[in-house]
């Protein structure tokens, strides 16, 4: 993996879920169950329909929340609080990952489609508190979700990110399309590679990948 390809990077942007912790922790199983329950309760539909709508809204609008806001005018606050009220017992601290991120030259931020308070809980549980310069949730983008280009533009303007000197680490391949178009170096963090023009690198081991850059 060519280290020189990252020599220009001064800002390192990390997704949260299934990126800063391994998918084996299965936190999103809990979140998805709570999303389905929220859709059932709010729209008064059976579980099968709620599951269908949850996935349809994610596919068509970027997140289930975005679909619920656009089509049903729901208040995002209670939704975000409910779906992120999960157990983090399956998360372990990762001192090696913390050391690698801390050693990266420049600014380090987290940007998630989840909410900021949830992100802070996960970061703390992973032993990554104090490693990042800033943490941004979907609320900081006006509830516009990744993969929308406008969401990235809002967060990067807020933080002062210059995309041409930044790298994005993300488990959801479609969320790397806008960063690539903006001029960022993109890294797909996932168990299996996905061939796409907007993905520069793939890794199934974030800590190991970063260790080769420092």
Automatic annotation (TrEMBL):
KW Hydrolase (keyword) present: yes
SUPFAM superfamilies associated with the record: HAD-like
InterPro entries in UniProt: HAD-like_sf, HAD-SF_hydro_IA, HAD_sf, Pyr-5-nucltdase
Keyword Hydrolase: yes
MF (Gene Ontology): hydrolase activity
Swiss-Prot/TrEMBL keywords: Hydrolase
PANTHER family per the UniProt record, alphabetical: HALOACID DEHALOGENASE-LIKE HYDROLASE
Name the record gives this protein: Putative hydrolase of the HAD superfamily
